[in-house]
Each structure stands twice: as C-alpha cells, then as structure tokens.
Amino acid sequence: MGMVEEQLSLADLHTEMALTTGERHFTLERPLFTSAGSHIWLASEISKKERRRGKACLLVLSPLLFEHNRHTAAIEAQIALQEDWHHANVVQIQAVARDPAGWHFAILEATEGASLKSMISKHHFKPELAKAVMKSTASILHSLHSKRILHLDLSPHSILITRDYQLKLLNTSYQYSIFQTLHEGQASAPAHPDNDSWPSLRYLAPELLQTPASPSPAADIFSLGCLCYELLMGEPLFKSTERFPLPDIPSLHTNQWKALNRLLALAPEERPTRQLNELIDDIFTPREGPPAHPLTTERPIAKAKRFDRRRILMLAGATLSGLAIINFLIYLVLHKSPHQQEMADLTEQIEQLLQNPQSEADLRKAQQLFDQFYQKASGQSGSRKLEDNITAFFMKLHNPALQAPADISPGKLPAPKAASPNRLRAGDSFTDALANGMRGPLLMVIPSGSAYIGNQDRRGSSDELAPHFVSYSAPFALMQDEVTFEDYDLFAKATGRLLPDDNGWGRGRRPVINVSWYDANAYAIWLSNISRHVYRLPTEEEWEYSARANTSTAYWWGGAIDKGHGNCQSCGSEWDNLRTAPVGAFPANNYGLFDVSGNVSEWVGDCYTEGSVAASGSTDAQNQQCMSRVIKGGSWRSPPALLRSSARQQAEPDNRNSETGFRLLREISDQEQYAAP
What we know:
Blueprint: H1 3-6, E1 18-21, E2 24-34, E3 38-47, E4 52-61, H2 69-81, E5 93-98, E6 104-108, E7 113-115, H3 116-122, H4 127-146, E8 159-162, E9 167-169, H5 174-182, H6 217-233, H7 254-263, H8 276-283, H9 309-314, H10 324-334, H11 340-355, H12 360-380, H13 384-389, E10 417-418, E11 429-431, E12 443-446, E13 449-453, E14 468-472, E15 476-479, H14 485-495, H15 517-531, E16 535-536, H16 540-548, E17 601-607, E18 629-632, E19 649-651, E20 660-661, E21 665-667
Parallel strand pairs: 10-11, 17-20
Antiparallel strand pairs: 1-2, 2-3, 3-4, 4-6, 5-6, 7-8, 8-9, 11-12, 12-15, 13-14, 15-21, 16-21, 17-18, 18-19
Helix pairs in contact: 2-5, 4-6, 4-8, 4-10, 7-8, 11-12
Pfam families: FGE-sulfatase (PF03781), Pkinase (PF00069)
GO molecular function, one term: protein kinase activity
Transmembrane segments: 312-334
C-alpha cells in the first residue's frame, strides 16, 4: 500500500470533494451514515460522455481496513455479493470501485431521506406507527433470511425513510464485516462505544460481540428487540456492550416486558422463531398489571418539533409487508382536520367489527363503514399517496394472521418439512410425500383472515373486479412457484400424456407452458391421488388474496412497475418480451410466493364473466362448463398493467400457448392446522 493511501482518513471527506472511477465522476454532497469503518455519502454524478447529472450514494471505506490485502479482498468480496441479488427495501450496491487517490468505495443506488434515528430524536412515535414500522422491518428481515442473507447491523441509523415513501435498509451484511476487520485480534469490542464512531454497536446481539462471533438470523431478531425498546421508550436500551442482565424497567407492563425478554434472550436458540408480529403488538400495547410507575414516553411539548405536511408524509413507507398502512396511521394520528373525531369514530367501529367478526353481517357492516371512511378521507386528503394506500387499514391491523410472516429460525434457516398434525401455520413451507416415493412441489401456508381486493385504486380496466371484501376462516397452502416442466413432466410420463412443448427455451425449473385449463385440472387430480391431499386450481379471489399478500397497491411491491420484480413486456429483466425466466428469479411476495406478477399467466378455477363482478368465488366453478376461464398475473409478453394484482384476462379452457401456466392450491385439513397451546 502506497504512502498516499496511508495518509488518507475518513475525516478528510467533505462536501464538494470529488471521487472518480473510470468514466464516472462523483461530487460528495452530504453524509447519510458515518462510522469508524465507513461513511455513506449522497453524491451527484457527472457523466462527461453523456453530459448528464444524476444522483448516487457512495459507501467510502476507511483506509484502516486495507492494511493487509486479505482484508481488502474479504470486504470487497462481501460487498460484491450484493451485486447479484436485489430487494426493493434494501439499498442496492451497483459496483465496487477505487479512486486514483486510493479511496476504496462502493456505488449504491441513489437514496435520499431521513434515518429512523433522526426521527426518534425529533418526534415521539405513537404506538400504532411504531408497531407498523417494526412489523415492516421484521417482514424485510424475513425476506432477507429466506435468501440466506443476514443484516447483522440493524439499528435506527441503518433504517431510512426515503422521500418517495419507501423504507430502506442500509449496511446489509457488509457493515458487520467491516466491524470485524477493524476489531480483529481484540478480545472484545470496546466496552463504552462512541455512537459517532460505531452507531450500531449498542444494537448488536451478544454472540456478535464475542470472539469468535456466531452470526445467525437470531442476531437480527435481537437487534429488532433493541429497536422496539427505543421506539417505545425514546432512548437506547444499552449504554455499553454489556448485555446482561437486562436493566430493570419498572415502567413497563408485564406483557410488554415478557415480549421484550423473548426478543432479547441471551441464547440465540431461545429467541422466537414465530409470531413476531404478536410480540410486537404486546411490546407496544400495555395489557397486564399496572406498572410500578405509569409508562410515558411523551416528550415535553416545548421540545417536540412541529412537522409540516411534507415531513409527516416523509415518515411513511410502502414495503413488501404492507408499509402502506403507515401513510394512513400518520394521517390518523398526526393530521389535524375538522372531521378528525368523526374519522376516529369510524375507525374504532371498523376495528371492533374486524377484531372478531361474528357473522357475514358484521363483515358487510364493516365494508359499509369503510366505504364511508374512504370517501371522507379521500375528500379531505391532498395526497394521492394517501388515497392509494388508505384501503390498507381495512386489513385488520391488529390481526397478526394478516401480517407478512416473520417466522425465522435462529441459527439456521427454515427447511421444508412434511405436513404433520397441528404443525401448519401461516408462513410455514412444506412438501407432501407422494405414493411414488418422491415429494411434491414446495407449498407455502397462506394465513386465514380478511382483505379488501379488486380494483382498489380505480385505475384498472372496467373488467377488473370491483373492490370488495373477502374472508377466509382457515389457512390454505399455495405452491411457492408456478408448476415447472420438472414437476409437470413427471405427471405426463406417469399418465402417458404428450409432453408440452418448451418452445426451445429449456425445461427443468422453467414454468410449464403450452398447457390448457383441462391439463392443469388433470394435473391437480393426479397430484391429489398420489398425495392423499386435495389439490386444485385456486379461485380468482383466493389467487388475488394470496398474490396481494396483505397489500393494497397495484402490485404487491408498490404502486408502479419496478425493475427487478418480474418478467414482462417492459419490466427491465433480461427475459422481457423474449421468453420465460426460471421460477424464483425475482423476489417473493410477503407470503413467500414467487412470480405472481409476470413470467407466465396463471389459470384459476373460475369461469370468466364480463364486467366487474366475479362469476363465482366458489370452488364449484371448477366443475362448471364455461366458454372461458380466468387467467391472472400477466406473462413475459404482457404490458405492465396486466401484472396488477387485480388485472384479469380470459381464454378458452382448451387453449394452449407459450404465455400461460398455473400453480395449485392445496387444502389444509382441520387436523393439520397449528393448534395454539
């Protein structure tokens, strides 16, 4: 390493400083995150070749990390790993670079906004808003862990709320590698961390502070518990790296303390693997026994800064797990209007009906009240974003079954398992044993509950179903992937059917194409017979309920098409308008389902009827004779509008083409459902 590099220091970084790599030239504007090991700066990019100016974020690494070449290689390899995967709520790394002056840095996607830490320091979080943020963070962690990715640096500093209402995680996996390199050779981390030098140290799990460290998904769960405490109390739980015993907090109610203790368990294997949303509810909802001192986290009015409307809305985010509700919560909790009390009364009535509906009449009443709420809120709001997302409140905010599953096994990632009595619950994945000695396709358990589906934003075609309420009293399972050639060919060979054409694109893990509705139904009957369980095509309502996964936006990830989420006519993928992609090539939705938007359209059970009323929400539709059947999800050749969750197409049931495949629903018996102790 040369003398120039030895003289470099992160303290030298400043506004208007230039960094260069190849043809790309950056000018630093302001820091977003600082630690002893790296700084993240918002920068403007000037391309002299294309004469344009854009934005980017730069992760600049401390020169102290590069005293040995092996450190350089290890850290840059860790960062480079993220170039191969994408998550809508993780700040994406685009490239690893080096400046001629000796600076090592990574180029991140442009992200502007405020950190959760800055918001905590300026504003008291109401319980409902804090719960929504934490549940959504848990959902993002669940998605990362399902891809075998650990965050390991979760703190208020690494959670960003962007100006376009997105929640984004910084420092995913690589920041902890930087921490390990800086402290290699030391027996332990500093006992009294400086928040400015290493902001996340107070939130690290105890097993990450040991030598050797033992990273696992459970470490992220511990950090989530620290975040919950800070949102609840307004200050960090730990003042040093000493983790146990936990400090006595007499102001917490019994249920709150029990829930926090589960997330903050000393042993990683004792941290909860399921029901994180229920624990988050408990942490922010005092229920059991009066505290020793009344719990209050209100800040003095004189110290609370007043938020204007733009800054209030900037708090909101719409993530894979339903962050759309935050827009509504901020509006409800903070927005002042002449009709606020009337809105609050309507909200309370809706909540009471949806908490424990006793009959179909209760659900119809809730829908009527919600329609009133929607009209009044839309009339008062100047924000189109609020109007788009306000229907998300209708999804029973306090019913954990409707939240995105955040069930993570500590120490190891969840593995598919065979179905067994009293074990299946929302978020589980499993396979069925088949009579031929093999195992069936991977299935995801879809939670029971209620949801608002259909053309909610009124921007779809007139043919889409009108917004309406659906409710399922029991969970069911859906194939995680569209049926592949690999799966379908087993059926075809076993029953003497002709193998469907793959158009020369390949078989294996690509979704099966050139299959009719009758072919799909025959596959379901065959799979039911050799598994001794009921498989069938889902109804249109079941399909949309599962594809939306507790979201109210046009697509499960948000209100607009976004590169990296699907394969369609113009989705930005390498397969666009050319051919199918292998299943699972894009992120799963919040219920763990891949390719519900794009790749191949999917047959469902219903007969097609023109207009905005479903022909039937009943499984009996599969036994009816129809001129056409409904197709959902859009394909590799479809315009983005057909990838909307509520979009629908139709085809004659004997039609076979290169754009249409299917996935099956598997019914779950009462004996297989999880029985709470």
